[in-house]
Amino acid sequence: MNLLEIERLSLEFRTRGGTVRALEDVSLAVGKGETLGVVGESGSGKSVLSFAVMGISDAAATVTNGAVRFEGLDLLGDGRSALDELRGAEMSMIFQNPRVALNPIRMVGKQIADVLSRHAGVTRDQAKTRAVEMLAKVRIPDPERRARAYPFEMSGGMCQRVMIALALACSPKLLIADEPTTGLDVTTQAAIMDLIGDLARESRMSTILITHDLALAAERCDRIAVMHAGHVVEVATTAELFAHPRHPYTAKLIATTPRPGVGLAELEPVPGALPDLRGDLPSCRYSARCERRQEECADGPLARLIDPTNAHLVACRRPL
Amino acid sequence: MIAHLILRRLLGAIPSLVAVVVVTFLLTRALPGDPAAYFAGPAATPQAIEEIRHKLGLDKSLPLQFVDYLGDLARGEFGQSLTTGQPVAQDILARLPASVELTLAGLILALIVALPLGVAAATRPGSWIDHLARVVSTAGVSLPVFFTGLLLVYVFYYLLGWAPAPMGRLDLFTSAPRTITGFFLIDSLLTGEFATFRAAAAQLTLPALTLALFSVAPLARMTRASMLGVLSSDFVRTARANGLSRGTVLVTYALRNALLPVVTTLGMVFSFLLGANVLVEKVFSWPGIGSYAIEALVASDYAPVQGFILTMAVLYVTLNLLIDVLYGLIDPRVRIEA
Q1: Interface contact A105-B237, CB threshold 8 A
Q2: Which of A102, A146, A219, B241 has the smallest C-beta neighbourhood within 10 Å, fewest atoms?
Q3: In chain A, positions 141-180, which contact chain B (CB-CB < 8 Å)?
């Protein structure tokens, strides 16, 4: 059984300017110990999806359809009340911009201890000791002293390590990392990603890595899901996706990614922009930007081609 | 760190205190009316008035008078009140607790209402409690304190008879508790005189309510605005994603961060209240330093007015110091800057 199953999830934001259909019919699954990459442009719904899974969506968001199952427990239905116990304990999340994602006026050790005393059933003193252990585990030097530091006294990379310690304090089964390395320099990026990878392997933790950086996803993920304008357009194993992208958007996205032997000038951007998600949308939300568009794309539901040999999913009538 | 901050702020307060001393001196000299004539009484001859003027040192040049004034201040002498015949310092010390007790009671009452109201309004924007907060805020700032004071007296004393007559800190039948802090509420509790406590609380309720009504508005609005900002911040989202309980998220994470601007507002409101006190004390015959200053002003009695303004200035400086310390306690970043 998969650890997490997202089934035909649709989510809307009610805004003054109209209803934004941020997610439509999104289906994804994450196996135990697996690292799933979710890639796509900014605004494609990656973060919205992860917030919906965690149950921390904005107040204006409504799930209109679908299910999220964690170990078989329906988090949007019967399991809703259990969500409070799961968050931070069984599944947790790390965010981008770690410096603002931590409470600025609380010592980092205390913030970790808060999570531990909420979920781990330990006394405040034990929680503090374990917080220091967690800081050591994420390879922060001099953890006892650092536990008494405030986020503004630490570098961005250090803060992200604290975020990881916070997320992993209760040994969750699922970690959602939402652009965990955005805003960090390249060497720090690699160190942070190594850390997440090592800790995940150690405890057979599943990871969802949300990123706009295809190269990063290629390096770190077992499988990759490509999102565009609130749709999942393609899911495949990393090797398969890069070797044989089937969705035109995936192919374009790969073409925009810097790689050895290709000059910056040769990289071509994906033409057009994400469609406005308010009002009427074509059933294929990529069709307006697609060079392979034909009349058949306009009518009927999105085709779902499945390559049965390696579970390669494509949502396109005219795949490559 | 905190001690360092206090020292710096105290040093920083010296220029403002010097300015206040100079300005009060000049201002009181510029007031219309001749204190020598007033002191001598209506039947005095011009010669007698001149004699008194000489005795008071008012015939000297302004700089010389100022030097005398500074000398007196250095010795802790604020001069003699012509109206009460007592040393001003003694008068003010006797009356200050009444004013401070009233102001603090008003402020605490306001905080008790404003903080939960602001937090509730921020957690449910657009709900009835949010609208209630807006109505209370608008009403609070649009009504002048002497008016709300009179209205409360009219309704709760005259019409309903729930409140005692607005005749100062205690009714005629109760004697003041032994002075320990000068605050009747605290002193009566310390000496175990519960009947006195009840009487003092009854007298205090309406004037404190008047001040509270006025100060709830800015405090509730600032709490709401500040909470709204903090609740949508990244670190509150992190706290929620980590499954922390609603109470922890709301109080330990959101409210503590939202308190900084509220504390700033609190300082401003406190300053307003010290000023508004003058009117409220008049309406409720409250024997504080506000009513004392008004009586002195009407009588062209320099010394008490000077003493009053100086006391106020020292209060402001102390208050701002407290606010700064509170800042440092809430936000570690402020401590580092110091």
Answers
A1: no
A2: A219
A3: 150, 152, 163, 166-167
DSSP state of A94: E
Would residue A138 count as lying in a domain? Answer: no
Amino acid at A142: D
The C-alpha atoms of residue B4 and residue B18 are separated, in whole angstroms, by 22
Which residues in chain A have Cβ-Cβ distances shorter than 8 Å to B234?
95, 97, 100-101
Domains belonging to chain B, first-starting first, are 2-74 (no CATH), 94-337 (1.10.3720.10)
* Contact indicator for B113, B217 with CB cutoff of 8 Å: no
- For residues B141-172, one letter each, b for 16 or more C-beta atoms within 10 angstroms of the residue's C-beta and e for the rest, the string is eebebeebbeebbeebbeeeeebbebebbbee
CB pairs under 8 A between A and B: 75
Which residue in B233, B237, B238, B253 has the most chain A C-beta atoms within 10 A of its own C-beta, making it the best mutation to test that interface?
A: B238
Is the backbone of residue A311 left (phi > 0), alpha (psi -120 to 50) or beta?
Answer: left
Count CA atoms closer than 13 A to B296's CA, side-chain side.
27
For range B190-217, the mean pLDDT:
85
Residue A81 in domain? yes
Host domain of residue A278: 4-90+170-314
The DSSP H or E segment spanning A20 is: strand A18-30
How far is Cα B269 from Cα B109, in angstroms, rounded to an integer?
Answer: 13
Nearest to B184 by CA among B172, B171, B167, B201: B201
Summarised one tens digit per residue, pLDDT across range A59-90 is 888 899 899 999 888 888 877 888 888 898 89
CATH number at residue A56: 3.40.50.300
Residue with structure tokens 């937090």? Answer: B119
Residue A303 has pLDDT above 70, yes or no: no
What are the start-end ranges of the H helices in chain B? 2-30, 35-40, 46-56, 62-74, 88-123, 128-142, 145-152, 184-190, 194-231, 234-241, 246-247, 256-283, 289-298, 302-330, 332-337
Record the pTM.
0.81
Mean pLDDT computed over A200-209: 91
Number of domains in chain A: 1
Asked whether residue A156 is assigned to any structural domain, the reply reads no
